[in-house]
Amino acid sequence: MTSLPVNSAAPGGKRERTKQANRAAILDAARDVFAELGYGAASIRDIVRRTDLATGTFYNYFPDKESVLVALLDATAGEARERVRAARRGGTTLNAFVRDGFRAYTSELLSRNAGTIRALFDEPSLVAGVEELAEDLQAGIAAGLIPDHDVEYMAASMVGAAFEIGARMLEGQEPDPERATEFISSLFIAGLRAAGS
Fold first, then answer.
1. Dihedrals φ, ψ of 4, to 5°?
2. So what's the pLDDT on residue 2?
3. Cα angle value 183/169/105 (rounded, 5°)
4. pTM for the complete prediction?
5. Mean pLDDT per segment of 10 residues, for the chain of length 197 residues?
């Protein structure tokens, strides 16, 4: 009886495991390089140097540096959005809904690469966060926690303001997420209460 050749491209095969390991090595290296140097200053060569891979191998997985950043955002954005959403949903008052959501945002979603993330703001993983906020705002209105306003405008303004304040926070010498959270929360809580009167 002859044995059949093992398909190395099968989901659990050696080739597939190698491909997954190479991609993970590139993403891990890119995360470190982007955090250390910032996205703008980082090069593909900097990323490859942090791996045991050849430069040509990088291009088997990613066409350019931006595609690596997008893959990193996709990999982390869903988990971070869930934590932000859980913080909002745990709020039983307008103050808690707004403050807890912004606090989770400033601690989970921001990085030193704010300019690049701003340029990629139409990526699906980031757009989904705005849509989820709109859903949560609608649920907050239905529960009587939040005054009834246009949820699309509220979501867009809250995400835009949080992003810009977070980016400004990161430009400082000593980022202070709590100060940023308190400022933006106070701004939106007061605004929502005034508009609801």
1. -80, 145
2. 43
3. 70
4. 0.61
5. 45 85 93 81 93 94 91 76 87 91 73 51 66 92 91 89 78 77 91 81
The token duo for 60 is 């088997």
Kindly state the DSSP code that residue 3 receives in the 8-state scheme. Answer: P
Write the CA distances from 165 to 22, 114, 120, 130, 162, integer angstroms: 36, 11, 17, 16, 5
Measured on CA atoms in the order 165, 170, 176, 177, is the torsion positive or negative?
Answer: positive
* pLDDT tens column, 44-64: 999 999 999 999 999 999 999
pLDDT at 1: 42
Place of tokens 């989901």: 11
CA distance between the termini of the chain: 84
How far apart CA 60 and CA 126 sit, in angstroms, is 26
**What domains does the chain contain, in order, with CATH numbers?**
14-63 (1.10.10.60), 67-196 (1.10.357)
Q: Which helix (H) or strand (E) holds 135?
A: helix 124-142
Give 105: exposed, middle or buried? Use CB within 10 Å, 0-12, 13-18, 19+: buried
- DSSP tag of 122: T
Say if residues 104 and 87 touch (Cβ distance below 8 Å).
Answer: yes
